[in-house]
Specification:
Elements lengths: L17 H5 L6 H14 L1 H29 L1 H18 L4 H4 L6 H18 L10 H13 L3 E5 L14 E5 H7 L7 H4 L3
Antiparallel strand pairs: 1-2
Helix pairs in contact: 6-7
Length: 194
């Protein structure tokens, strides 16, 4: 009666591979897998080098096989892409505050908003003076006090030749800025027109 050398279980066709039976190896598949895992751990660097070499030799064949599979299975390819995109979206943080709580100090947020306005200014070819986040800090303080969103508006818009310096900025509620649009100050005339 043949028994496994490792676990002493009786060897039969179900727990012994055909190649092991041909070579008369007295090891069950479970013990063989474990021995292989331990050998791999003991010779990790050597095995990794071997795997890299094998991958390099077979990379062209793998790419060709993958392309052929994609062409043969368009529905499954679309489904796989959709699933991976859903996974990516689920892993992406919804807003940047919870993902990086140390980043949402008022000064950091004001600087972030100033840079956003500076990018928009550059699109219009507006010269940018030194960085001044004072108005943006005021807007953030107003937001925290009232719970409404406040923005820094440019008295003379970039589209009409306005500059991105403190003399051309004013803090106002977001909804009011949306009503004002591209109008220049004094915008009360625009607001009261029929």
């Amino acid at each position: 009666m043949n028994r496994c050398r490792g676990c002493s279980v009786e060897l039969n066709s179900e727990n012994r591979t055909p190649s092991a039976a041909r070579r008369n190896v007295r090891t069950c598949t479970t013990c063989a897998r474990e021995a292989c895992r331990l050998h791999r751990l003991a010779n990790l660097e050597k095995m990794r080098a071997k795997d890299r070499e094998r991958a390099k030799l077979n990379s062209a064949r793998k790419v060709a096989a993958a392309k052929a599979w994609v062409l043969a299975n368009p529905e499954r390819t679309r489904e796989n892409k959709r699933r991976s995109e859903e996974r990516r979206r689920a892993q992406r943080p919804r807003i940047w505050r919870p993902a990086a709580p140390h980043n949402h100090s008022p000064k950091r947020m004001a600087t972030h908003r100033w840079h956003g306005a500076a990018r928009r200014a550059r699109r219009y070819g507006v010269q940018i003076s030194e960085k001044d986040t004072g108005h943006y800090l005021t807007a953030l303080a107003a937001e925290r006090a009232t719970g409404l969103r406040y923005v820094v508006d440019h008295i003379r818009p970039f589209s009409k030749g306005g500059s991105h310096d403190p003399a051309n900025m004013v803090v106002m509620a977001d909804w009011l800025n949306a009503l004002k649009g591209e109008a220049e100050w004094p915008w009360l005339e625009w607001f009261n027109r029929p």
